[in-house]
Write a structure and sequence with these properties.
The structure is a homodimer. By secondary structure, chain A is α+β, with helices and mostly antiparallel strands. The first copy, chain A, has two domains: 75 residues, Arc Repressor Mutant, subunit A, CATH 1.10.10.10; 129 residues, no CATH class. Helix content of chain A is 49%, strand content 17%. Chain A is built from twelve helices and eleven strands. Chain A has a three-stranded antiparallel sheet with strand order 1-3-2. Chain A has a two-stranded antiparallel ribbon with strand order 4-5. In chain A, helix 2 crosses helix 3 and helix 3 packs across helix 4. Chain A starts with a helix and ends with a helix. The relative contact order of chain A is 0.11. The structure holds a DNA duplex.
DNA sequence: AGAACACTTCGGCCGCGACCGAAGCGTTCG
DNA sequence: CGAACGCTTCGGTCGCGGCCGAAGTGTTCT
């Protein structure tokens, strides 16, 4: 199997608009049924079925039967990471293309706050990352990041004791370029823990049928107090 | 521009075997001419020209004219990283597929040692990463890595003073999953510095027309003494 | 200047694969 | 049990895009 051929196979898999829409819809890590995916790809169930079979055969999705439904999800974090990387490349490919930029078919709600596989992205995700860097909790480099000594205490105070995560001083903390904001947000284990904690606290709520995340009233207060992040105005203003 | 559509566009770009072969051929970061790429993709110059135009328009490649040649290279490290990630996903997609595994069209020389954009990969690359971890020079986690305190001294002794690289203790040091060995090798700035240093020392020599890297006699000694890595036997044995 | 060369554009051919409706299968209701 | 439902398989249509040869443009060499 030549490297080029292997490359072209996954490329072709992602390269069809219907399949790409399905993959994008699944990017938040949830499982969706075949008909939901058919709807979000805007194709007939028959077409969707074929696409999904190919994606499963190609190892990009896994499927689990449940009653008369079949639920599909992204097969691994590798695949999710690949999708994100491809989106970054795609968004950088047309830097000055106003025609494209001018038609932001990405919904305002998604741009505001969404999940990215298992962590937070969008304006909220980037804002949190900025806040954590500004407060000296984490230090982010181009491809790696780490939690500072004082940051450990801050995170523990937020309900995220890192002692149990691992022995090493280095933590699974990774910047992930946000394709809508074009600036890094926080990914990795820490990003996932943060997202889960915000959900536990009732600050955010995942929407049923999309990757969008809504910030609750408690979340508005919490993000402002703890992070100095204004997550509310844009939501309140309906943007 | 919907996320799905953006995704599908770069997917489709990579999804053609001819284009994927070109991208794979350019993965080591060198610039190749249109006819060289036509040859490595095994298509007529006319076809190659069209493919290359699309890859440039899509932002995956950049081109520079030089006399009557046009030299193409991968547009950015982002793109190279995307290709590597896609290869990892591709290689994981068929874990037990012996029919594929049994036809390793990847040449033994490439599997032995090659460049991966700007750093070393293959058996040599993985071996060096292992050696650096074993010697406590670097610590690698799943997605991040760092140079230890004692590692700084070791690297300085190898001719890589890190003082000038940056102020922070954290270094641009990243594990990169090797698609032929399926284990991480060393990437990031450190990986690139290491590769360049080995070339400076005359330990390795890049082949003219491929990503393959040959280990010189001096390199065999050097890798054994400094890293405890046996880079020679396989080469000497012709494997 | 003229020939050789690197590359692109054009035009026509052809095949893969995406699409859908209809029919088939298995599950879950009433 | 039969109807409704979710999904897949089948069969046929169709259009996009890859392919190449030939001709055209620009560059270098002698």
């Amino acid at each position: 199997m030549s490297p080029g051929l292997a490359l072209s196979e996954v490329g072709a898999l992602v390269g069809d608009p219907a399949r790409a829409n399905m993959l994008a819809a699944l990017l938040d890590g949830r499982a969706l049924s075949a008909s939901e995916l058919a709807w979000s790809a805007r194709v007939a169930p028959a077409s969707a079925s074929g696409h999904l079979a190919r994606l499963v055969a190609g190892g990009l999705l896994t499927v689990v039967r449940q009653g008369r439904h079949r639920y599909f999800r992204v097969a691994s974090a590798d695949v999710a990471g690949m999708e994100e990387t491809m989106m970054v490349v795609a968004s950088r490919a047309h830097p000055g293309d106003d025609r494209r930029r001018a038609t932001p078919r990405i919904s305002p709600a998604l741009r505001e706050a969404r999940t990215c596989y298992d962590h937070l992205a969008g304006r909220l995700g980037v804002g949190l990352a900025d806040a954590l860097v500004a407060r000296g909790v984490v230090a982010l480099a181009e491809e790696a990041g780490e939690v500072t000594e004082s940051g450990r205490a801050w995170l523990a105070g937020f309900g995220l004791p890192l002692d149990r995560v691992g022995r090493t001083r280095r933590l699974f903390c990774r910047p992930c370029l946000d394709w809508s904001e074009r600036r890094p947000h926080l990914a990795g284990v820490l990003g996932a823990m943060l997202c889960r904690r915000c959900e536990e606290l009732g600050w955010i709520r995942r929407e049923r049928d999309s990757r969008a995340v809504t910030v609750t009233a408690a979340g508005r207060r919490g993000f402002a107090e703890r992070f100095g992040v204004d997550a509310g105005s844009a939501i309140a203003a309906g943007r």
